[in-house]
Amino acid sequence: MAIVLEPVNQAVSCSVISNEVAVPIRQCSQLVERCRELGVEGYRVGVFSGAGFLNRYLPITIPFAPMLIYKNKVEVPLVFRRGEAAVALVNDPLRLPAFFKLLDWYLSYDEEAEKVLFGYERARGRLQQFTGKKVVDSALVAFRLSEIIDGAGYLLKDLQSEAEFVSWNRVHRLVADQPIGRHSRILDLEDPKRLAEIRMIFDIVRLKYPHVNLFQNQQLSFVG
User: Fold this and answer.
1) 181: left (phi over 0), alpha (psi -120 to 50) or beta
2) Which parts of the chain register pLDDT below 70?
């Protein structure tokens, strides 16, 4: 059964236009069952409050927001910006494994976790020492996932070498690169973190285009 996203009608925000949609609470159990093998332990309904990608970094409060409980007590709000990418995320069987693969990468590095966890600041300590509630900016992760699958995937599938990817990335900037000298920028494939990001991206692309051989890493599986 398809999950039909519904408008969030009780949100309190500084935005003039409301574009938030959420997984209906009555369908949360269905989504949990799809995601159990990915590390999802259940869901809860509670107050979601933050200033993130969902509301263009303006404060927003949603009193009855559904949230998945992911491993290590990470909460993933099932509230997104309205659009085809949000619908695909909760219904396309390749998107859920890809979403959590991407989220795992973010949470593996303190400087990346700072981008997607409300309230976490690495200047105050390591993520492992963070005692606050770990609530994900799931709208941001969903947007980045759409950049990879919908924006870049079709082009990446035809690349034949690492050198081709480096040249392609220099134009399209899918992966952040490093300045070398005053005018040049280059992607450092010797950087373990950067290489892990690239492998993660190609793992996600392989879900849609299995023939892609570049940057092989652990394969992901579909969920139904």
Assistant:
1) left
2) 14-17, 178-185, 217-224
The tokens for 55 are 């509301």
Q: Are 11 and 60 in contact (CB under 8 A)?
A: yes
Q: Helical H runs in the chain?
A: 28-35, 84-91, 95-107, 110-116, 138-146, 153-156, 162-172, 192-208
Q: Do the Cβ atoms of 197 and 105 come closer than 8 Å?
A: yes
The reported pTM is: 0.91
> How far apart (Å, rounded) are the C-alpha atoms in residues 4 and 21?
10
Dump pLDDT digits (tens) for 153-180: 999 999 999 999 999 999 999 998 765 5
**Phi, then psi, of 60 in degrees rounded to 5:** -145, 145
Residues 6+ apart with CB under 8 A from 98: 145, 148, 149, 204, 207, 220
